[in-house]
Amino acid sequence: MEGTLSAAARAELAAADPAMAALIERIGEIDLQTRLRRRSEERPADAYGALLRAIVGQQLSTKAARTIHRRVCELFGGKTPSPRQLLEASEEELRAAGLSGRKVSYLRDLASHVLSGELELDRLGELADEEVVEEIVAVRGLGRWTAEMFLIFHLERPDVLSGGDLGIRKAVQIEYGLAELPPPRRVLEIGEAWRPQRSLASLYLWESLANVPAG
Fold first, then answer.
1. Are both 64 and 120 inside the same structural domain?
2. Using one digit for the tens of pLDDT, what is the confidence trace for 148-196?
């Protein structure tokens, strides 16, 4: 059944936009659920852990982010620290693990929002996409891009497009033959045709960058 759903989603996306149809033809089958699970396996399965990992990884390479996240967890017995543990840990300990002072403050703000109930993680799955974004960006250090990645890869929402994602913008420029890198608003305008499969379109656009011939 899952394969049938994926095939139907690809067919719908291809029928909506000739450029996307050509991209799908070139790259071939992408199973949305399989890709989402693979991405999720690389990150904490719970919402709190995923957001904590997102803060740790900001502006770092994948390798550096993985290393620092591991060091932070090692401070707490190899597990993601609970919000209370994070607030009780000294800044010196956290910075020794590789976190900047700013990221320490962001992690503590996340922990405070969770403990106070301002951020009800268990409710996020019940909210509309834009409501989830609003909840997440209320935490210092978590912006719209992080919220959109959370929607796609953690909540597995099918119709999310991050217009500000640099990779998506670059892929749109290439696939649509644009002279310049399109601004986020232009990406969202082009992406209107992809509804309600914009998450799948995003995966194809990201994948296309790995298949761009060397100059």
1. yes
2. 999 998 999 999 999 999 999 999 999 999 999 999 999 999 999 999 9
Note whether 144 and 124 are within 8 A (CB).
Answer: no
117 and 25 in a common domain? no
Does residue 35 form part of some domain?
no
H or E stretch covering 23: helix 18-27
Q: 17, 31, 109, 165: which is the annotated catalytic residue? A: 165
- Is 165 among the catalytic positions? yes
Taking the model in full, what pTM does it have? 0.89
Domain termination residue (choose one: 110, 133, 154): 154
DSSP string, 95-119: HHTT--HHHHHHHHHHHHHHHHTSS
Per-residue pLDDT of 24-36, as tens digits, reads 999 998 865 666 6
